[in-house]
Amino acid sequence: MKKLRTIARAFILLTTVAYSLGAAAKGHRTQVFTTVKTANAETVHGQIDWPQGELIDWNGPVIVFISGGIPSDRNGWAVLARGTVWNRRSPFKDLSDALVAKGMAVIRFDHPAVRAPKFNCRDALENGTFSESRIRTHCLNVEVLSRVGVSTYVSSVEAAINHVVGLMPNATRQVVLFGFSEGLQHATTILNRRSITPSALVSIGSPAQCLRDVSHWQAIDRVIETLPEFDSNIDGVVTNAEIEDGYKRGIGGIASDSSAWLSPHGEWRKDDIEAFRSDLKKQFSELTGRFRDVGQKDSLTYVRHKSGVRIPDVTESFWRMQFQSEVSSLKSMVQLGVPGLFIWGDKDRQVPVTLQASLAVAAKQKGATVEVVRFAARFHMLSAESDTDWFEPAFASDIAEVVRKFLLRSRRSAQAS
């Protein structure tokens, strides 16, 4: 039983209209911006990309990229990406270029704790010693990062949106909040605050349900649902040999190595699996209890890189959000009458896609302006390769076209009603 609990804990921690949308626009203009620090928001550095003309005259859609809260830059890259397939990506830049090419403006920005571009973080890590001190000097302001809890992050994003929209007075009614994974949670919080009235919410890899329910699925049901995939001879018994072989073939990649799946008895039988489920539930309950007190100190957490270097991550409030938040983006869309687009990859193992899609479709059948697009051969962030990677640069144009058509349909629907 002790071994079962060790395995269970390993999984729990892992969960841890002048411009037409009908044609491609010519040109690509950029303007950088910096917001002012306030009592509730940190300074944010970012940029606006748009197709043509003067910014003050822009009256087309304005897409705002909102990430989940890890300290990533305006291009969608983070120090945490080092040593992974994600390290070679700049997904926000790629998607921004694709959206601008199809006639949309894009607002993207660095996490408040990310040091300005002049510090050359990526180059510094690639060409120098990879160390915590180098990360602090060139990449992340740890003092700021330790202050950025969920509330401060959302307020900082909100301030950045208001700042830029103030520079584009003709586009205030065409702001679209685009959440990536947990970023939709923050977009929904901004929607619920009603200080900004978005014309639509769009997301990639984000749940329609609240994060609390999805975390429960990740920590318990996803694990149990995955075990039978190792049963290569389909005899109802999953042996450790089958696990070792299956892991090499890509099964069970939600764990960092095959040992997390191995049975202490050499094989998983029905009774063992049920005991495993019970222990997962117990461990999940204990972990959520740890994050239940919203008044506790919001300490900064770290991720240990495979080289041994500690990488500053997020404050504990982001974990509390993950395990405690009852905010459902779908419910907010329906209640406030805001159109929504959910984009998922069917191979996503971070979100229970089939369930999320069924909830969205049911809402649409009841009259909500909600659409679902699923890509059969894509993972969590629409990568063709892995749940821990992002979409390839060439695929950004496909995503942009999906967004363009959705906005066109939702605008026509709004005009008709």
Automatic annotation (TrEMBL):
<protein>
    <recommendedName>
        <fullName>Alpha/beta hydrolase</fullName>
    </recommendedName>
</protein>
<dbReference type="InterPro" id="IPR029058">
    <property type="entry name" value="AB_hydrolase_fold"/>
</dbReference>
<dbReference type="InterPro" id="IPR053145">
    <property type="entry name" value="AB_hydrolase_Est10"/>
</dbReference>
<keyword id="KW-0732">Signal</keyword>
<feature type="signal peptide">
    <location>
        <begin position="1"/>
        <end position="25"/>
    </location>
</feature>
